[in-house]
Specification:
The structure is a single chain. This protein has about 450 residues and is an alpha+beta fold. The chain has two domains: about 5-200 and about 365-455, Aminopeptidase (3-Layer(aba) Sandwich); about 200-255 and about 300-365, Alpha-Beta Plaits, CATH 3.30.70.360. It has helices spanning about 5-15, 15-30, 40-55, 120-140, 165-170, 225-235, 260-265, 270-280, 290-295, 335-350, 375-385, 405-410, 435-450, and strands spanning about 55-60, 70-75, 85-90, 110-115, 115-120, 150-155, 180, 195, 195-200, 200-210, 215, 300-310, 320, 320-330, 355-365, 365-370, 390-395, 415, 435. The radius of gyration is 23 Å and the shape is globular.
Amino acid sequence: MTDTIVETLRTYVRANQARYVTELRALVSQPSVSATGEGVPQCAALVQGLMERAGLCTQAFTTDGYSHDNPLLYGEYGAAGAGPTIALYAHYDIVPPADPERWSVPLYDPVIKDGRLYGAGVADDKAQLFTIIKAIEALAQAGVSAPALKVVSDGEEEQYSPHFESFMAQHRDLFKADLLLGVDGEAHETGPVLALGLKGTLFVRLDVQTAAKDLFTGYSPVVPNAIWRLNQALASLVDRNGRILMGGFYDAVAPLSAVEEAWLAQVPFDRPGILRHLQTQRLLVHDGADYYRRLTTWPTCAITSISGGYHGAGVKNVLPGTASATVDFQIVANQTCDDLEAKLRRHFARHGFEDVQVTVLQRRGPHKIASDHPYVEPVRAGARRAYGIEPVMLPYYRGAGGVGAEFQGIGVPSIWLPTLYPMENNMGGTDENVRVQDVLDGIVAIAVICHHLCQAR
Protein backbone atom coordinates (compact mmCIF):
# COMPACT_ATOMS: atom_id res chain seq x y z
CA MET A 1 0.00 0.00 0.00
CA THR A 2 1.34 3.43 -0.95
CA ASP A 3 2.01 5.78 1.95
CA THR A 4 0.63 9.07 0.62
CA ILE A 5 2.48 11.20 3.18
CA VAL A 6 5.83 9.63 2.34
CA GLU A 7 5.18 9.93 -1.39
CA THR A 8 4.08 13.55 -1.07
CA LEU A 9 7.30 14.43 0.71
CA ARG A 10 9.47 12.42 -1.68
CA THR A 11 7.85 14.13 -4.64
CA TYR A 12 8.57 17.55 -3.16
CA VAL A 13 12.18 16.63 -2.41
CA ARG A 14 12.77 15.20 -5.90
CA ALA A 15 11.33 18.33 -7.49
CA ASN A 16 13.77 20.50 -5.52
CA GLN A 17 16.86 18.30 -5.74
CA ALA A 18 18.85 20.63 -8.00
CA ARG A 19 18.20 23.60 -5.73
CA TYR A 20 19.11 21.56 -2.67
CA VAL A 21 22.46 20.61 -4.17
CA THR A 22 23.18 24.25 -5.01
CA GLU A 23 22.28 25.40 -1.50
CA LEU A 24 24.26 22.64 0.20
CA ARG A 25 27.30 23.46 -1.91
CA ALA A 26 27.02 27.10 -0.82
CA LEU A 27 26.84 26.03 2.82
CA VAL A 28 29.90 23.78 2.54
CA SER A 29 31.78 26.51 0.65
CA GLN A 30 31.67 28.66 3.78
CA PRO A 31 34.36 27.69 6.33
CA SER A 32 33.25 27.47 9.97
CA VAL A 33 36.19 26.10 11.96
CA SER A 34 35.33 26.57 15.61
CA ALA A 35 38.86 25.73 16.79
CA THR A 36 40.18 28.89 15.09
CA GLY A 37 36.99 30.89 14.53
CA GLU A 38 37.55 30.93 10.77
CA GLY A 39 34.30 31.80 9.00
CA VAL A 40 32.04 30.93 11.95
CA PRO A 41 29.94 34.15 12.03
CA GLN A 42 29.56 34.16 8.25
CA CYS A 43 28.38 30.54 8.31
CA ALA A 44 25.93 31.32 11.12
CA ALA A 45 24.37 34.06 8.99
CA LEU A 46 24.11 31.67 6.06
CA VAL A 47 22.41 29.00 8.17
CA GLN A 48 20.03 31.50 9.72
CA GLY A 49 19.00 32.60 6.23
CA LEU A 50 18.32 28.98 5.24
CA MET A 51 16.21 28.51 8.36
CA GLU A 52 14.14 31.61 7.71
CA ARG A 53 13.50 30.73 4.07
CA ALA A 54 12.38 27.27 5.22
CA GLY A 55 9.67 28.86 7.34
CA LEU A 56 11.24 29.08 10.79
CA CYS A 57 11.10 32.12 13.05
CA THR A 58 14.75 32.48 14.09
CA GLN A 59 17.01 34.12 16.62
CA ALA A 60 20.80 34.33 16.76
CA PHE A 61 21.81 34.50 20.43
CA THR A 62 24.97 36.40 21.31
CA THR A 63 24.82 36.45 25.13
CA ASP A 64 25.82 34.21 28.04
CA GLY A 65 29.07 33.12 26.40
CA TYR A 66 27.87 33.31 22.82
CA SER A 67 28.80 36.35 20.72
CA HIS A 68 28.58 37.72 17.20
CA ASP A 69 31.63 35.56 16.48
CA ASN A 70 29.92 32.31 17.54
CA PRO A 71 26.13 32.76 17.81
CA LEU A 72 23.76 30.04 18.95
CA LEU A 73 21.04 29.66 16.34
CA TYR A 74 17.46 28.93 17.33
CA GLY A 75 14.28 28.61 15.30
CA GLU A 76 10.64 27.69 15.82
CA TYR A 77 8.12 26.20 13.42
CA GLY A 78 4.44 25.81 14.27
CA ALA A 79 2.65 26.54 17.50
CA ALA A 80 2.47 24.39 20.60
CA GLY A 81 -0.83 22.57 20.83
CA ALA A 82 -2.24 19.20 21.76
CA GLY A 83 0.64 17.33 20.16
CA PRO A 84 4.22 17.13 21.39
CA THR A 85 6.94 19.74 20.94
CA ILE A 86 10.02 18.30 19.24
CA ALA A 87 13.48 19.87 19.38
CA LEU A 88 15.98 19.10 16.62
CA TYR A 89 19.72 19.61 16.90
CA ALA A 90 22.71 19.69 14.57
CA HIS A 91 25.82 21.86 14.55
CA TYR A 92 27.17 24.23 11.93
CA ASP A 93 30.83 24.30 12.98
CA ILE A 94 33.47 21.90 11.66
CA VAL A 95 36.84 20.55 12.76
CA PRO A 96 40.04 21.86 11.15
CA PRO A 97 40.25 20.05 7.81
CA ALA A 98 42.55 17.03 7.97
CA ASP A 99 45.77 17.08 5.91
CA PRO A 100 44.69 19.76 3.39
CA GLU A 101 47.61 18.95 1.10
CA ARG A 102 46.32 15.38 0.69
CA TRP A 103 42.85 16.35 -0.51
CA SER A 104 42.13 15.52 -4.15
CA VAL A 105 39.45 18.24 -4.33
CA PRO A 106 39.32 21.81 -2.96
CA LEU A 107 38.36 22.12 0.72
CA TYR A 108 35.74 24.80 0.19
CA ASP A 109 34.78 24.49 -3.46
CA PRO A 110 32.52 21.42 -3.33
CA VAL A 111 32.45 19.09 -6.28
CA ILE A 112 30.21 16.12 -7.07
CA LYS A 113 31.76 12.86 -8.24
CA ASP A 114 29.91 9.58 -8.64
CA GLY A 115 26.92 10.84 -6.71
CA ARG A 116 28.99 12.14 -3.78
CA LEU A 117 29.44 15.76 -2.76
CA TYR A 118 32.95 16.51 -1.45
CA GLY A 119 33.98 19.31 0.90
CA ALA A 120 35.30 20.06 4.38
CA GLY A 121 32.62 19.58 7.03
CA VAL A 122 29.96 18.27 4.66
CA ALA A 123 29.45 15.03 6.62
CA ASP A 124 30.13 16.44 10.09
CA ASP A 125 27.67 18.04 10.30
CA LYS A 126 26.56 20.44 7.59
CA ALA A 127 24.67 17.98 5.39
CA GLN A 128 22.73 16.69 8.39
CA LEU A 129 21.89 20.20 9.60
CA PHE A 130 20.73 20.83 6.05
CA THR A 131 18.40 17.80 6.23
CA ILE A 132 16.69 19.26 9.31
CA ILE A 133 16.13 22.65 7.68
CA LYS A 134 14.89 21.20 4.42
CA ALA A 135 12.65 18.68 6.18
CA ILE A 136 10.80 21.59 7.77
CA GLU A 137 10.63 23.35 4.42
CA ALA A 138 9.16 20.19 2.86
CA LEU A 139 6.56 19.86 5.62
CA ALA A 140 5.54 23.49 5.15
CA GLN A 141 5.49 23.58 1.36
CA ALA A 142 3.89 20.15 0.91
CA GLY A 143 1.19 20.94 3.45
CA VAL A 144 2.03 18.00 5.73
CA SER A 145 1.11 18.35 9.39
CA ALA A 146 3.83 18.47 12.02
CA PRO A 147 4.13 19.07 15.74
CA ALA A 148 5.63 22.25 17.12
CA LEU A 149 9.33 22.17 16.22
CA LYS A 150 12.36 23.90 17.74
CA VAL A 151 15.67 23.87 15.89
CA VAL A 152 18.93 24.44 17.77
CA SER A 153 22.24 24.78 15.94
CA ASP A 154 25.51 25.27 17.74
CA GLY A 155 28.73 26.76 16.36
CA GLU A 156 30.91 25.28 19.13
CA GLU A 157 30.01 21.60 19.13
CA GLU A 158 33.45 20.51 17.97
CA GLN A 159 34.82 22.27 21.06
CA TYR A 160 32.31 20.42 23.30
CA SER A 161 29.86 23.37 23.34
CA PRO A 162 31.48 25.09 26.35
CA HIS A 163 28.79 27.79 26.67
CA PHE A 164 25.63 25.77 26.04
CA GLU A 165 25.03 24.59 29.60
CA SER A 166 25.24 28.08 31.10
CA PHE A 167 23.10 29.52 28.31
CA MET A 168 20.42 26.88 28.85
CA ALA A 169 20.42 27.62 32.57
CA GLN A 170 19.41 31.20 31.76
CA HIS A 171 16.86 30.26 29.08
CA ARG A 172 15.27 27.00 30.24
CA ASP A 173 11.81 27.83 28.87
CA LEU A 174 13.25 28.32 25.39
CA PHE A 175 14.37 24.70 25.23
CA LYS A 176 11.34 23.02 26.80
CA ALA A 177 10.23 20.13 24.60
CA ASP A 178 8.93 16.59 24.82
CA LEU A 179 11.81 15.06 22.85
CA LEU A 180 15.13 16.03 21.26
CA LEU A 181 16.10 14.50 17.94
CA GLY A 182 19.84 14.82 17.33
CA VAL A 183 21.05 14.51 13.75
CA ASP A 184 24.78 13.81 13.69
CA GLY A 185 27.09 10.87 13.05
CA GLU A 186 26.80 7.87 10.74
CA ALA A 187 24.08 5.32 10.12
CA HIS A 188 24.71 1.59 9.74
CA GLU A 189 25.92 0.23 6.42
CA THR A 190 22.62 -1.65 6.02
CA GLY A 191 20.35 1.31 6.75
CA PRO A 192 19.13 3.84 9.29
CA VAL A 193 20.16 3.91 12.96
CA LEU A 194 18.39 5.09 16.07
CA ALA A 195 20.69 5.54 19.07
CA LEU A 196 19.14 6.05 22.49
CA GLY A 197 21.99 8.10 23.88
CA LEU A 198 25.51 9.44 23.66
CA LYS A 199 28.40 8.77 26.01
CA GLY A 200 29.84 11.48 28.19
CA THR A 201 33.46 12.58 28.10
CA LEU A 202 36.13 13.68 30.52
CA PHE A 203 39.05 14.99 28.46
CA VAL A 204 42.22 15.48 30.49
CA ARG A 205 45.83 16.51 30.05
CA LEU A 206 48.49 14.68 32.06
CA ASP A 207 51.84 16.35 32.71
CA VAL A 208 55.01 14.96 34.27
CA GLN A 209 58.16 16.89 35.15
CA THR A 210 61.20 15.01 36.41
CA ALA A 211 63.81 17.73 35.91
CA ALA A 212 63.81 21.47 35.31
CA LYS A 213 65.76 20.97 32.08
CA ASP A 214 66.59 18.25 29.57
CA LEU A 215 69.79 16.35 30.36
CA PHE A 216 72.07 14.07 28.42
CA THR A 217 70.94 10.45 28.31
CA GLY A 218 74.03 9.48 30.31
CA TYR A 219 72.13 10.64 33.38
CA SER A 220 69.44 7.98 32.83
CA PRO A 221 70.65 5.69 35.63
CA VAL A 222 70.28 8.44 38.24
CA VAL A 223 67.58 10.86 36.97
CA PRO A 224 64.03 9.74 36.07
CA ASN A 225 62.97 9.92 32.43
CA ALA A 226 59.75 11.94 32.15
CA ILE A 227 58.49 9.97 29.16
CA TRP A 228 59.01 6.62 30.90
CA ARG A 229 57.33 8.00 34.01
CA LEU A 230 54.31 9.17 32.04
CA ASN A 231 54.10 5.90 30.10
CA GLN A 232 54.08 3.94 33.37
CA ALA A 233 51.27 6.10 34.72
CA LEU A 234 49.28 5.64 31.50
CA ALA A 235 49.88 1.89 31.51
CA SER A 236 48.42 1.66 35.01
CA LEU A 237 45.03 2.84 33.73
CA VAL A 238 44.04 -0.20 31.61
CA ASP A 239 44.83 -3.88 31.28
CA ARG A 240 45.78 -5.70 28.07
CA ASN A 241 42.12 -6.17 27.17
CA GLY A 242 41.26 -2.50 27.55
CA ARG A 243 39.47 -2.85 30.88
CA ILE A 244 39.88 0.31 32.95
CA LEU A 245 41.65 -0.39 36.24
CA MET A 246 40.64 2.61 38.35
CA GLY A 247 39.04 1.42 41.59
CA GLY A 248 35.26 1.50 41.42
CA PHE A 249 35.23 2.69 37.81
CA TYR A 250 32.42 0.34 36.75
CA ASP A 251 30.38 0.47 39.95
CA ALA A 252 27.66 2.76 38.56
CA VAL A 253 27.41 1.15 35.10
CA ALA A 254 23.95 -0.36 34.71
CA PRO A 255 23.50 -3.58 32.73
CA LEU A 256 21.72 -3.43 29.40
CA SER A 257 18.07 -4.34 29.33
CA ALA A 258 16.97 -7.59 27.69
CA VAL A 259 15.57 -5.54 24.81
CA GLU A 260 18.89 -3.78 24.28
CA GLU A 261 20.79 -7.08 24.38
CA ALA A 262 18.45 -8.41 21.72
CA TRP A 263 19.02 -5.33 19.56
CA LEU A 264 22.79 -5.79 19.67
CA ALA A 265 22.50 -9.46 18.75
CA GLN A 266 20.52 -8.51 15.65
CA VAL A 267 22.85 -5.84 14.24
CA PRO A 268 24.38 -7.07 10.94
CA PHE A 269 28.16 -7.39 11.14
CA ASP A 270 30.34 -7.09 8.03
CA ARG A 271 33.90 -7.57 9.27
CA PRO A 272 35.62 -7.03 5.87
CA GLY A 273 33.51 -3.95 5.20
CA ILE A 274 34.22 -2.48 8.63
CA LEU A 275 37.95 -3.12 8.21
CA ARG A 276 37.86 -1.25 4.88
CA HIS A 277 35.81 1.58 6.35
CA LEU A 278 38.09 2.02 9.36
CA GLN A 279 41.23 1.44 7.26
CA THR A 280 42.66 -0.94 9.82
CA GLN A 281 43.92 -4.52 9.69
CA ARG A 282 42.61 -5.75 13.02
CA LEU A 283 39.61 -5.51 15.33
CA LEU A 284 39.67 -6.23 19.06
CA VAL A 285 36.47 -8.26 18.91
CA HIS A 286 35.23 -11.79 18.29
CA ASP A 287 31.91 -11.30 16.51
CA GLY A 288 29.22 -8.78 15.68
CA ALA A 289 27.53 -8.76 19.08
CA ASP A 290 30.90 -8.24 20.75
CA TYR A 291 31.77 -5.45 18.28
CA TYR A 292 28.59 -3.46 18.83
CA ARG A 293 28.51 -4.06 22.57
CA ARG A 294 32.02 -2.68 22.92
CA LEU A 295 31.51 0.12 20.41
CA THR A 296 28.24 1.44 21.75
CA THR A 297 28.13 0.54 25.45
CA TRP A 298 31.66 0.27 26.86
CA PRO A 299 33.20 3.17 28.76
CA THR A 300 36.58 3.96 27.23
CA CYS A 301 40.03 5.31 28.04
CA ALA A 302 41.80 6.54 24.90
CA ILE A 303 45.21 8.21 24.76
CA THR A 304 44.77 10.90 22.12
CA SER A 305 48.28 12.39 22.15
CA ILE A 306 51.63 11.99 23.85
CA SER A 307 54.64 14.27 23.58
CA GLY A 308 58.10 14.85 24.99
CA GLY A 309 61.72 14.77 24.00
CA TYR A 310 63.34 15.89 20.77
CA HIS A 311 61.55 15.63 17.42
CA GLY A 312 63.82 17.70 15.18
CA ALA A 313 66.21 16.73 12.43
CA GLY A 314 69.00 14.30 13.16
CA VAL A 315 69.46 12.80 16.61
CA LYS A 316 69.87 14.33 20.07
CA ASN A 317 70.78 12.22 23.10
CA VAL A 318 68.34 14.00 25.36
CA LEU A 319 66.88 12.76 28.64
CA PRO A 320 63.44 14.47 28.66
CA GLY A 321 62.61 16.44 31.77
CA THR A 322 58.94 16.88 30.81
CA ALA A 323 56.30 14.84 29.06
CA SER A 324 52.57 15.23 28.51
CA ALA A 325 49.61 13.31 27.16
CA THR A 326 45.93 13.88 26.58
CA VAL A 327 43.37 11.22 27.43
CA ASP A 328 39.68 11.00 26.53
CA PHE A 329 37.56 9.02 28.97
CA GLN A 330 34.08 8.24 27.66
CA ILE A 331 31.44 7.26 30.20
CA VAL A 332 27.90 5.92 30.14
CA ALA A 333 24.67 6.59 32.01
CA ASN A 334 24.93 6.83 35.83
CA GLN A 335 28.63 7.65 35.64
CA THR A 336 29.60 11.30 36.17
CA CYS A 337 32.58 13.40 35.19
CA ASP A 338 33.11 14.66 38.74
CA ASP A 339 33.22 11.13 40.13
CA LEU A 340 35.55 9.98 37.35
CA GLU A 341 37.95 12.88 37.98
CA ALA A 342 38.08 12.00 41.68
CA LYS A 343 38.71 8.32 40.89
CA LEU A 344 41.50 9.25 38.45
CA ARG A 345 43.29 11.40 41.02
CA ARG A 346 42.92 8.68 43.69
CA HIS A 347 44.21 6.05 41.28
CA PHE A 348 47.42 7.96 40.59
CA ALA A 349 47.94 8.66 44.30
CA ARG A 350 47.44 4.98 45.25
CA HIS A 351 49.86 3.78 42.59
CA GLY A 352 52.65 6.18 43.45
CA PHE A 353 52.06 8.69 40.67
CA GLU A 354 51.34 11.75 42.82
CA ASP A 355 53.66 13.75 40.56
CA VAL A 356 51.33 13.32 37.55
CA GLN A 357 49.46 16.61 37.16
CA VAL A 358 45.86 16.22 35.97
CA THR A 359 44.20 19.12 34.14
CA VAL A 360 40.60 18.77 32.93
CA LEU A 361 40.22 20.20 29.43
CA GLN A 362 36.58 19.32 28.76
CA ARG A 363 33.78 17.55 30.56
CA ARG A 364 30.33 16.51 29.42
CA GLY A 365 27.93 14.06 30.99
CA PRO A 366 26.33 11.07 29.25
CA HIS A 367 22.65 10.81 28.45
CA LYS A 368 20.31 7.98 27.51
CA ILE A 369 16.61 7.46 27.02
CA ALA A 370 15.12 4.21 28.34
CA SER A 371 14.41 1.56 25.71
CA ASP A 372 10.76 1.42 26.83
CA HIS A 373 10.25 5.20 26.82
CA PRO A 374 6.96 6.13 25.09
CA TYR A 375 8.73 8.08 22.33
CA VAL A 376 11.10 5.32 21.24
CA GLU A 377 8.55 3.27 19.32
CA PRO A 378 6.94 6.24 17.48
CA VAL A 379 10.37 7.42 16.28
CA ARG A 380 11.26 3.87 15.29
CA ALA A 381 7.98 3.49 13.41
CA GLY A 382 8.52 6.84 11.67
CA ALA A 383 12.00 5.81 10.52
CA ARG A 384 10.64 2.47 9.31
CA ARG A 385 7.90 4.31 7.45
CA ALA A 386 10.35 6.68 5.76
CA TYR A 387 13.08 4.22 4.80
CA GLY A 388 10.93 1.15 4.23
CA ILE A 389 13.16 -1.03 6.43
CA GLU A 390 13.62 -1.61 10.14
CA PRO A 391 16.19 0.78 11.66
CA VAL A 392 19.17 -0.58 13.55
CA MET A 393 18.59 0.11 17.25
CA LEU A 394 21.58 0.93 19.47
CA PRO A 395 21.71 1.69 23.22
CA TYR A 396 24.29 4.42 22.56
CA TYR A 397 25.94 5.97 19.56
CA ARG A 398 29.66 5.18 19.42
CA GLY A 399 30.82 8.65 20.47
CA ALA A 400 30.36 11.48 22.93
CA GLY A 401 29.19 15.05 22.54
CA GLY A 402 26.02 16.73 21.39
CA VAL A 403 23.81 18.64 23.78
CA GLY A 404 21.64 15.77 24.96
CA ALA A 405 23.06 15.85 28.50
CA GLU A 406 21.96 19.46 28.92
CA PHE A 407 18.50 18.71 27.54
CA GLN A 408 18.26 15.67 29.83
CA GLY A 409 19.05 18.00 32.71
CA ILE A 410 15.82 19.92 32.08
CA GLY A 411 13.77 16.76 31.58
CA VAL A 412 13.96 16.44 27.78
CA PRO A 413 15.03 12.95 26.59
CA SER A 414 16.84 12.51 23.28
CA ILE A 415 17.16 10.06 20.42
CA TRP A 416 19.92 10.34 17.83
CA LEU A 417 19.22 9.78 14.15
CA PRO A 418 22.36 9.88 11.98
CA THR A 419 21.34 10.00 8.33
CA LEU A 420 24.59 9.31 6.46
CA TYR A 421 25.81 6.01 5.04
CA PRO A 422 29.03 5.23 6.96
CA MET A 423 31.32 3.72 4.35
CA GLU A 424 33.79 6.03 2.61
CA ASN A 425 32.43 9.40 3.75
CA ASN A 426 35.73 10.09 5.58
CA MET A 427 33.94 12.11 8.24
CA GLY A 428 36.37 14.70 9.60
CA GLY A 429 39.13 13.36 7.33
CA THR A 430 40.67 13.75 3.92
CA ASP A 431 38.20 14.08 1.00
CA GLU A 432 35.20 14.23 3.34
CA ASN A 433 32.00 13.60 1.41
CA VAL A 434 28.36 12.54 1.50
CA ARG A 435 26.17 10.63 -0.89
CA VAL A 436 23.68 13.10 -2.31
CA GLN A 437 20.97 10.45 -2.08
CA ASP A 438 21.58 10.14 1.66
CA VAL A 439 20.86 13.84 2.05
CA LEU A 440 17.61 13.57 0.07
CA ASP A 441 16.54 10.46 1.99
CA GLY A 442 17.42 12.17 5.25
CA ILE A 443 15.18 15.13 4.44
CA VAL A 444 12.27 12.80 3.83
CA ALA A 445 13.04 10.72 6.93
CA ILE A 446 13.15 13.66 9.34
CA ALA A 447 9.98 15.11 7.85
CA VAL A 448 8.16 11.77 8.11
CA ILE A 449 9.30 11.18 11.70
CA CYS A 450 8.18 14.67 12.73
CA HIS A 451 4.81 14.12 11.09
CA HIS A 452 4.50 10.68 12.69
CA LEU A 453 5.15 12.21 16.11
CA CYS A 454 2.08 14.45 15.82
CA GLN A 455 0.01 11.83 17.59
CA ALA A 456 2.73 10.57 19.97
CA ARG A 457 1.86 12.45 23.16
